[in-house]
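Standup notes
- HV: blocked on the assembly model, inputs below
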Amino acid sequence: MSLGISFAFIVYLFIMMSIGIYFYFKTSDLSDYILGGRKLGPAVTALSAGASDMSGWLLLGLPGALYAGGMNNIWIAIGLTMGAFLNWQFVARKLRVYTEKAGNSITLPDYLENRFEDRSKVLRVISAFVILIFFTIYVSSGLVGGAILFEKTFGFDYQVALWVGAIIIVGYTFLGGFMAVSLTDFIQGMLMFCALIIVPVVAIKLVGGWDETLKAVHKVNPGHLDAFSGMTTLGIISLMAWGLGYFGQPHILARFMAIKSADETPKAQVVGMSWMVFGLFGAILTGFAGIGFLEAPLENSETVFIVLTETLFNPWVAGVILAAILSAIMSTIDSQLLVCSSAVAEDFYRSILKKDASPKELVWIGRISVLVLALIATAFASDPGSKVLDLVSYAWGGFGAAFGPVIILSLFWKNMTRNGALAGMITGAVTVIVWKNLSGGIFDVYEILPGFIVCTIAICIGSMIGKKPSKEMVDLFDEVA
Amino acid sequence: MENISLTTATWLWLLLPMPMAVVLSVLNLFFGRREKK
């Protein structure tokens, strides 16, 4: 273990914890704890949304896929970019306005209940339940990634690595809540961005430039230079369909709800999209640079970013760059834990168990939820060979199909009703689960696509039959539109 | 000497949708709608 790398990691983790402690003293009620009192500036919103969205996949998965398989891996990046753009363009501003006008909703289940005037609480409970189930799995997979990084970098035992990572992340999320998470996400996003620019630029320069890098890639496999190599139309559609997931990710939508003014969303969009596109290009180039720079093929292609960093830079610089991987992992987990805690505190505890709970009490319920959920997720992650990593695409697809069309149509279709939302949410989630368990032919398409389509149809049918929306619902819709 | 490059279709897909998302976001910043004050 290098002293430089260790020092950089310790300084980085110390800064994250200090931010958590600072915001511990600034948090007075649940809105502060889970939405930062809607005070986020555009840059923090943008980078926080980006960093929460992009987990270790951006620094490990995508460069690794390009390194191993070449340009035919760009489709998922293109799909994600298009999805993120459409989300910023059409959902962000409107969701910010609507959630405030609809009873100052601070969580997605809260918003759905207020938007559709659901007095039965069914919508709130089912959506909060979906959030808790999928995010516990999602958080577990992130913890596995963090533990593997600690294990590889410091030579820790897997279990020790898992607990060290979990304690740090839970520490600042538990203490500081949303503002701490958003600010740490911002710093983590900057670190990820710099790392994804510096590593490929330096590596390509050392290979002898872009042309030399391409020659090296061509020598390994000429097909690596062709995005269509070995791809079918269905395969391309399936990969690009990942972009649909954005409309239903609660941890990303929470950032939109927290921006201090709807007028700030265009600024945040420019920052967020630039960050994402440069980051994705950096990840793509890192994979290519790895082919050119590393002579012996890597046993695990996903370590290409780590190996390049350790090879190219002195340990002090490498430590800072490697902290970016930890950043990518931590920034996703903390945001997801926080959404889970909001589901417990706001959607279960305050709405169902204790309506007159005090602000302080709710903050503590939120904190305890973070702790309990993190413990469950850590227990799931304690088996490094567990299938939690496989479930990431499941969770992304599940959220995208269950919530995506519900959120879009709730913002843009005046006649949508509670029954439509409920029908869509349930059919979307069920389609994803059923589709995932079938294989061959059309069933090889990523489950989010059929889930999204079925959910949309179910919302339309469910809204057209039965009770029409009330006058108050329609008036509120018109006020927001 | 052979000139090695990405295929034209790859360049197109790489350089069109992703940077376009940034360009459109910038245009939206200057020409997008604002809340009524």
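- HV (later): unblocked. Residues 17-31 of chain B form the longest helix (15 residues). The mean pLDDT of chain B is 84.
- Next: hand off to the docking folks.
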